[in-house]
Specification:
This protein is α+β, with helices and mostly antiparallel strands. It has 16 helices and 22 strands.
Length: about 500
């Protein structure tokens, strides 16, 4: 997962993009980048770290223009930072393109071969986002019939070509030099993308973002979600046009967005993330009542922050006191998206500190949104015992994560997942709990449908092993596992890995 933004405004957009990326910081803390356009010239700055650390006043001054895109990166393969793979990406032919992407392409290797042998395009990195950029560039050239003229019809034909060739999950914002902002979503709508509008005295402004919180913060009114397979085109004058570009679509958003990835105040695919998480707590309480009716609890305690709505409703339904038992250091990154098991384990103790008074002599139920690798759960249960808890029970608001995710979440190998080859009793023993309760997958689906009954399909591969795009084979999964086990070689790109570009794009 990553955070992406695209803005077409009536005034400078550098501050809008910076503020929007800060709101989406939870979606990626590895690197950040912003590109803007002034006439036919692109301006870009990107580098490693949090948004606040990547951009200084001198960088912001150079990001000139009334439209642009932004990206905060999360390494989907758990790799170390490679400056060359931070986004946006740029290519000069045929029209001058900048692209930022959230997701993961499952046929990236085949596309790379096609690029080299058929399309005669060269890749500079291992990033599938660069592959996607070059596929789009090639399709634009083909759609224009080598006339090198761009118009909405040409652009929509090019996106249709992308959909025919590309497999996997992708939400995209792209800049076409001299024309405007393009945004599109894969035919399954796996990764989220929303569009909003702000009416000003000088005309309308448009913002496309991964989550609606970016619209709220920046003063835009949400129009709607970008539909699966749909492309949206906004030219530099603020003219808005859209078209369905995929031959077949299925609306199947990623379930893990609602469980963990998205902010609770977001609306995505007609679903309030907060309401969904409250419903998860209600349904989890029902399961606990039926499976552990004689459980004697003194308190229900959330693992901050994403499990809090579920924990509050669970406590309410079980008629057990809700307590805050952990204080979070908000200057430590989210442990789930940190590369490396040792880094995650160390970070748990830095991130959370137990309030002894809420644990001493008590039977407590800790509630988390999910259990992925089990590292965080083990450390937190140990902290609760050290604080004096008599019994420590653990509840997960989502089902066991047993399978690899190939659509843009950092859980690509089963060997790292605590539930992949263990039953519930074995997982309970491994994390050191006195009891363990998981949400059922059907209940999780019901929690989302209770908020938006129109949703009938979901991408739930990490729970049930069903890959919605239909192209993920055992050989593909084994290849990912082998690649992840290999040592990663990172690149270097300037001081501290930061990069500034001022590019005059071909038009």
């Amino acid at each position: 997962m990553c955070g992406i933004l695209g803005v077409v405004a009536t005034g400078p957009v550098n501050q809008l993009l910076y503020d929007g990326l800060q709101v989406l910081q939870h979606r990626g803390q590895d690197a950040a980048g912003i590109a803007t356009a002034e006439g036919g010239r692109f301006h870009m700055h990107k580098g490693p770290g949090l948004v606040r650390d990547v951009f200084r006043t001198r960088n912001m001054r150079n990001l000139i223009g009334n439209w642009g895109i932004g990206h905060c990166r999360y390494p989907t393969a758990g790799s170390a930072y490679n400056a060359a793979e931070s986004q946006p990406f740029y290519v000069n032919s045929p029209f001058g393109l900048m692209l930022a992407h959230n997701g993961n392409l499952t046929n990236a290797d085949q596309l790379k071969q096609d690029m080299f042998l058929q399309d005669l395009r060269h890749m500079n990195t291992n990033s599938d986002s660069e592959v996607l950029l070059n596929v789009l560039a090639h399709e634009l050239q083909a759609a224009s019939q080598n006339r090198y003229q761009v118009d909405p019809e040409t652009i929509f034909r090019a996106v249709a070509g992308v959909h025919r060739r590309v497999r996997g999950a992708y939400a995209v914002v792209a800049m076409i030099a001299g024309y405007g902002l393009l945004a599109f979503r894969d035919p399954y709508g796996i990764r989220p993308l929303v569009v909003g509008r702000n009416d000003t005295p000088h005309g309308p402004e448009y913002l496309v973002a991964s989550e609606s919180v970016a619209l709220d913060t920046l003063g835009f009114r949400m129009l709607r979600d970008v539909e699966p397979g749909e492309a949206i085109l906004i030219d530099t004058q603020g003219h808005f046009v859209s078209r369905q570009c995929a031959e077949r679509t299925m609306h199947a958003p990623c379930m893990f967005e609602y469980v963990y990835l998205a902010r609770p105040d977001s609306l995505m695919d007609g679903v309030s993330v907060y309401e969904t998480r409250v419903k998860m707590g209600e349904l989890l309480a029902e399961k606990i009542r039926h499976t552990l009716p004689h459980l004697d609890l003194d308190a229900v305690i959330p693992i901050p922050d994403s499990s809090r709505p579920s924990a509050m409703e669970l406590a309410n339904r079980l008629d057990v006191p809700y307590r805050e038992g952990f204080v979070k250091n908000r200057y430590i990154g989210r442990t789930f998206i940190m590369p490396g098991q040792a880094t995650r384990r160390k970070s748990v103790r830095q991130k959370l500190n137990a309030i002894t008074q809420e644990f001493r002599g008590k039977n407590v139920m800790l509630v988390d949104d999910s259990i992925v690798r089990g590292t965080t759960s083990q450390e937190i249960i140990a902290m609760a015992r050290e604080a004096g808890a008599k019994k420590v029970y653990f509840a997960s608001a989502s089902p066991p994560v047993r399978h690899a995710n190939v659509y843009g979440i950092d859980m690509p190998t089963r060997s790292e997942l605590i539930a992949a080859f263990r039953n519930d009793a074995e997982i309970c023993a491994e994390i050191g709990a006195d009891g363990l309760v998981y949400q059922d997958l059907d209940a999780l689906r019901a929690a989302v449908r209770a908020v938006n009954p129109a949703l009938s399909h979901f991408e739930t591969s990490c729970f049930d092993g069903h890959y919605i795009t239909g192209d993920v084979t055992t050989a593909y999964l084994e290849g990912i596992e082998t690649a992840r086990a290999a040592p990663h070689k990172g690149g270097e790109d300037g001081e501290d890995g930061q990069l500034d570009l001022n590019l005059t794009a071909a038009q």
